[in-house]
């Protein structure tokens, strides 16, 4: 009988660590985000994080990249008229943030000491913003926001969505009906920018 254990496949370790990291962020918050805590939750040795992710910062970068790829997909939707799609993009942004709070925390809500996204990760984030700019340009092609720069409109929309959602995530939202109020906010912004 052999006394060596069957090794967990490398891809599985990576997936387990990623899921453990997201779960830890969701359940315990960023202050408890340590190599030891992630490894314990994933059921692996702490060294596995260095072997597969180059440590905690590598795990953060993987979450950052995945988050911005998911966000880019959300803001790229095209279902019909450009202005309606832009409105739906605003709604999709909130859904993304609330359904992927751990990703959103890494992307926007917490600055982790020592973590600086790589150039590649920064490009992934930039592509998410570019997708939003593309949506605004579609609306401009249809005659909306004619006197404004597409990047400026995209920045205002992103800032509005982020501000509302961030307060909601932090439980500093006193709206009677959070989803309805958010919808009204997006409606009001888009009408005001015409």
Walk me through this protein's architecture:
The protein has 194 residues and is mainly alpha-helical. The chain folds into two domains: 53 residues, Arc Repressor Mutant, subunit A, CATH 1.10.10; 138 residues, Tetracycline Repressor, domain 2 (Orthogonal Bundle). 72% of the residues lie in helices and 0% in strands. It has nine helices and no strands. The N and C termini lie far apart (75 Å). The N terminus is likely disordered.
What fraction, in percent, of the residue positions are helical?
Answer: over 70%
Strand share of the residues?
Answer: under 5%
Largest sheet features:
none
| Total tally of structural domains | 2
Low-pLDDT ranges: 1-7
> SSE order in H/E notation?
HHHHHHHHH
CATH classification, class level of the largest domain = Mainly Alpha
Q: How many separate helices?
A: 9
**Number of DSSP-assigned strands:** 0
Task: Report the end-to-end length measured between terminal Cα atoms.
Answer: 75 Å
Return the structural class. Answer: mainly alpha
The 3D shape can be described as elongated
Write the layout of secondary structure elements.
Blueprint: H1 10-28, H2 35-42, H3 47-53, H4 56-75, H5 82-99, H6 101-109, H7 119-141, H8 150-169, H9 178-193
Tags for this entry?
mainly alpha, elongated, Arc Repressor Mutant, subunit A, Tetracycline Repressor, domain 2, 9 helices, disordered N terminus, 194 residues
Give a summary of the structure in a few sentences:
This protein has 194 residues and is mostly helical. 72% of the residues lie in helices and 0% in strands.
